[in-house]
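Hi support team,

I'm opening this ticket because the web form for multi-chain structure prediction keeps timing out on my end. I have pasted the exact lines I submitted so you can reproduce it. The total is 226 residues across two entries, so I didn't expect it to be a heavy job. Is there a limit I'm missing, or should I split the entries? Thanks in advance, R.K.
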Amino acid sequence: GAVVSQHPSRVICKSGTSVKIECRSLDFQATTMFWYRQFPKQSLMLMATSNEGSKATYEQGVEKDKFLINHASLTLSTLTVTSAHPEDSSFYICSADSGRAINEQFFGPGTRLTVL
Amino acid sequence: QKEVEQDPGPLSVPEGAIVSLNCTYSNSAFQYFMWYRQYSRKGPELLMYTYSSGNKEDGRFTAQVDKSSKYISLFIRDSQPSDSATYLCAMSKGGNQFYFGTGTSLTVIP
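Hello R.K., no limit was hit. The queue was backed up. Here is the completed structure from your submission:
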């Protein structure tokens, strides 16, 4: 149990376009989901916390107008990178809080975004 | 100063060796300590989870937390080639926000 999926696993887009990444909890409901970004050889950096039915909470330095987060249901959160630029190229990972135990987050497999 | 420090390695050991992975931290408010394993191009997978100080063992894995020294360790006994991955430590104060180390890349050579 406690499986989190992400789609797509890899995306290549042109500079200036927008890309949507989906994060789904497949066998549990997640009131809270998290979006992380990971650059090569660097740690996971939390971008935002997404709560179902309310606005996301963004970490300092993360542009909320550029990284749009929608948590439409208890099993789905989406991250849209708007007007993507090459510097947005990164590995984006979501995680979901099962709510069953403190600090129990389950991570998705990640989405590799390459902006040309 | 980063809140969590972790030597990125890379670390290379022969099969069967004991592996020691470590993280240090600066914030005494951290109460929960986790170790994740991440294979290349995959999301992190929770390995061990410890609350406060002490040891926890699960099969070939042992996690140790020394809050007085702000130092945590993960030991892997009888290491296998399938253990080759990046190991991330993570900590939290009890809320949802996790603070990750940079990860240590481990290769176990057959």
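A quick check on our side: Chain A has a mean pLDDT of 90. Let us know if the file doesn't open in your viewer.
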